[in-house]
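Re: adenosine-5'-diphosphate structure - here you go.
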Amino acid sequence: MKRKAVFPGSFDPITLGHTDIINRALPLFDELTIAIGININKKYMFDVDTRIRMIEKVYANEPKIKVISYTGLTVDLCHKLNIDFILRGLRNPADFEFEKAIAQTNRKLGNVETVFLLTGPETSYISSSIVRDIYKNGGDISDLVPKEILKIINQ
Ligand code: ADP
């Protein structure tokens, strides 16, 4: 049976922190679905189609990766797509506390196991919100995001 995982998140935009987790997860799974969760109460900087396009561009040559968007519960998405694992990245104790409750809930609610990878030291400080702040204020984000998306961001 194929080992399938979903990496859910906002990816607004995808950063080198995300790609660090994705690249290190690739050897662990046969298929990795990057799933952009849409929350109608949240305001995003990049629309969902642009965020999908960015990730597809970064992983254009990686057949194991699929990119989708979804609404609703991540466990429901897992059941629909026959996915057994949720992938999440951990940067700090705050991430851990937050993720712990969600992972335990997802296991109880949907019998889905969450796999955590610890951030690499070079990318642990990177977050999409920092990238958005720098970008909005005209700063240089080229060390924080994959080079493939710079063109799309500046369009
Ligand atoms: P969410 O709004 O669900 O947190 P994000 O797009 O911010 O969506 O993050 C998606 C996942 O990527 C989360 O598991 C988050 O912890 C992880 N992540 C984000 N930035 C980093 C980073 N610098 N290092 C490791 N993991 C990260």
